[in-house]
Amino acid sequence: MERSRNQEKVKRLAAALKSGAKLRTESCPECGSPLVEVKGQVMCAICDKPVVIVRDETEAGRAIYPYILSTLEEVTVAKIDELTKLLARTGDPEEIERIAETIDALISVLKKGLELQQSLREKEKPS
Ligand SMILES: [Zn+2]
Q1: Whether the predicted pLDDT of 1 surpasses 60
Q2: How many Å lie between the centroid of ligand 1 and the Cα of residue 3?
Q3: Beta bridge pairs of residue 43
Q4: What's the pLDDT at 69?
Q5: How far, in Å, from the CA of 1 to the mean position of ligand 1?
Q6: Which secondary-structure segment (H or E) carries 44?
Q7: How far is the CA of 88 from the centre of ligand 1 (A)?
Q8: What pLDDT is stored for residue 109 in this prediction?
């Protein structure tokens, strides 16, 4: 079973190389197979998926910033939504104050996150 799967991998890799793909020194983060380059696009012949090559940790970090920020945005908006519902339900002045403060903090997190997304997008633009 395992062996036939490996043979299948080798076959696919060989087929990719035969059709003009170049072998790269990096390996696939998902399956560990050597990556190939087809028309300037680095990809895994086994997973049949393009792979983004990052040169160092800093770049790796930067590559996931947009993902982290959009997750942050989603979570923050969902929390503000929850708290707004809570706010609508309560009549306790202290609780209202607490919820309002929390919403205020969340909005500033959201605002900063959006500003950061904006500045990342501007940096990506070719100057
Ligand atoms: Zn792979």
Answers
A1: no
A2: 17
A3: 36, 50
A4: 87
A5: 18
A6: strand 41-44
A7: 50
A8: 94
pTM, 2 dp: 0.51
Residue 120 has pLDDT above 90, yes or no: no
Which listed CATH number (1.20.58, 1.10.10, 3.40.50, 3.40.630) goes with 57-124? 1.20.58
- What is the CA 61 to chain-centroid distance, rounded? 10
Q: What is the pLDDT of residues 104-116, one digit of tens each?
A: 999 999 999 999 8
Q: How far is the CA of 37 from the centre of ligand 1 (A)?
A: 13
Cα of 46 vs centre of ligand 1, distance in Å, is 5
Question: Where are the domains positioned within the chain?
Answer: 2-50, 57-124
The residue type at 3:
R
What length is written for the chain? 127
Taking residues 11-40, report their average pLDDT: 89
